[in-house]
Amino acid sequence: MANLDAAFSALADPTRRAILARLALGEATVMELAEPFEMTQPAISRHLKVLEGAGLILRRVEGTKRPCRLAPAAVAEIDQWLAMLRQTLAANYNRLDDVLAEMKTQEKAIP
């Protein structure tokens, strides 16, 4: 979980989240990723550099193109961290359910 801070920092930007959503559909070039945005290719490249630095994407060289894809290990790391939070929240809600059920039982017991 060493890159978790960098990953969440990268995810704070809506453009980078949109890029990741596009890459969830499959590998894409910088030009393909830039297409839906009203920004230059160099601006998209800067976003990609942040995502790559956070370990969220991988790039390979294919002639003059540099296709990008999601980095499964980084996504799994984030999912693992979120699963821990979900588990903790579920335990808290279960305890709250128990307290509320006990309160309801006590209310019914009072004439």
Summarize the structure.
This protein is mostly helical.
Query: How many structural domains in the coordinates?
Result: 1
Q: CATH topology, which one?
A: Arc Repressor Mutant, subunit A
Q: What is the CATH-assigned architecture? A: Orthogonal Bundle
| SS strand fraction | 5-15%
The low-pLDDT segments are none
Encode the helix/strand succession as letters: HHHHEEH
Radius of gyration: 22 Å
Fraction of residues in helix: 55-70%
Mean pLDDT: 90
In CATH, the homologous superfamily goes by the name Winged helix-like DNA-binding domain superfamily/Winged helix DNA-binding domain
Describe the structure.
The chain is mainly alpha-helical. It has a single domain (4-109), classed as Orthogonal Bundle (Arc Repressor Mutant, subunit A), CATH 1.10.10. The protein contains five helices and two strands. A two-stranded antiparallel ribbon has the order 1-2. A hairpin with an 8-residue loop joins strand 1 (57-59) and strand 2. The model has no long low-confidence stretch (mean pLDDT 90).
Task: Fill in the keyword field for this structure.
111 residues, two-stranded antiparallel sheet, mainly alpha, 2 strands, elongated
Structural topology:
Layout lengths: L3 H8 L2 H10 L6 H5 L6 H13 L3 E3 L8 E3 L1 H38 L2
Antiparallel strand pairs: 1-2
Helix pairs in contact: 1-4
